[in-house]
Design goal:
30% of the residues lie in helices and 23% in strands. With 184 residues, the protein is of the alpha/beta class.
Length: 184
Amino acid sequence: MTDDKLLVIRFFKTKNIEARHFPKKSKGKKADFELYLGDQIFGYCELKSILDYELSGLLHDPTYNKIQNKIHEATKQFNSVNPNHLKPNILFFMNHTEKVGWQDLWYVLTGQVTPPNQPSEPIDLSYLIRFLKTDDLAIIDYFIWADTFGENISFCINSDSHFINALKERINPKAYEKMNINDI
């Protein structure tokens, strides 16, 4: 089992949720974890790792495209295990590079350069338009971002999620709260 998967399991344990690997006998691409409260399935979690990469003289930073592609991959995996979206889908990003951060995910999700309550540049709608075409953001209820080299874990709840109250209560009572990765 990878260190990233162990961190995800330990994180959910701090929330009294058991993260179990999806059964290997399952066919096709599946989410990485089933999340349990006692013996009841609470939701599903997909882990996506952000690894270090070298820029090769590209004019545009490929970070945003990589994040968007990982979101798109995750929605396919969630649709295979939770096709009627009866339980929350949680996408957990494990970041291994200081070149990328929570702000990059925020930019892809909102088109804003910085989080709320800070000065912002004009909104870029290009990623949001692509998400609307694929309906990916309707599938993911909760985003978690952990920097393995730093100390913080960041959270973002999809405000359109039907599971917003359960997610706030169980995983993160304060939207945009930060947690220390060393505590998990």
